[in-house]
Design a protein that fits this description.
It is a single chain. The chain is mainly β. The protein is about 5% helix and about 20% strand. The chain has two helices and eight strands, in the order βββαβββββα. The strands form three sheets. It has a four-stranded antiparallel sheet. Strands 1-3 form a two-stranded parallel ribbon. A hairpin with a 7-residue loop joins β7 and β8 (about 155). It is globular, with a radius of gyration of 19 Å. The termini are far apart. It comes from Glycine max.
């Protein structure tokens, strides 16, 4: 028998901004951010995500989106997701959570990624002395490989990664940090 289809708990509409999603995205860990879904221990579920810029970087040849990226509104996160034990009790600060990523890949119709260097005028980066202006290369996925029209002749296993997975701190811990 085939495994059950994972339940969608955070779907993403690529035509909407992060703050317009049905389950609004956030960009910081804080105990006061309300959960957008709840799942049971052992449940297989699906979470969709946007790239770290919230879709601000576009699939085109221009690096102007990199040059003028608002770095105060990045690192969008899907969730929070409340985890319930077998008795329906939510996970608490200090509980150990194990997460198994069962499937990972780009959203259908969004099979591309990018690499970039930031412009010196927008914070730069560790390569600013070598690349003072914003640059961008778009990478298209074909199977496990990625290729870029901006860097002809280069092809590599372009495996995606889940980005950031974590838990919100307790208010007590947050007060210690701040």
């Amino acid at each position: 028998m085939a495994p059950a289809t994972p339940r969608f708990v955070v779907p993403i509409d690529l035509k909407k901004n992060p703050w317009e999603q049905n389950a609004p995205l956030h960009n910081r860990w804080h105990p006061h951010i309300p959960h957008v879904a709840a799942v049971n221990t052992g449940e297989v579920f699906r979470v969709e995500m946007v790239d770290w810029t919230g879709g601000a970087i576009k699939d085109n040849d221009s690096a102007l989106d990199i040059k003028f990226l608002d770095l105060s509104t990045v690192h969008y996160l899907s969730g929070p997701i409340r985890i319930l034990d077998n008795d329906g009790v939510p996970a608490q600060p200090g509980d150990l959570l194990a997460v198994e990523i069962c499937n990972l890949g780009p959203l259908p119709g969004d099979e591309w990624g990018f690499t970039a260097t930031f412009d010196r005028e927008n914070g730069g980066g560790f390569l600013t002395d070598h690349f003072p202006c914003a640059t961008k290369a778009i990478w298209y996925f074909e199977g496990i490989y990625a290729h870029s029209p901006q860097i002809p002749g280069v092809r590599f296993p372009g495996l995606t990664h889940p980005g950031i997975i974590g838990t919100a701190p307790s208010m007590e811990l947050l007060n210690i940090w701040n």
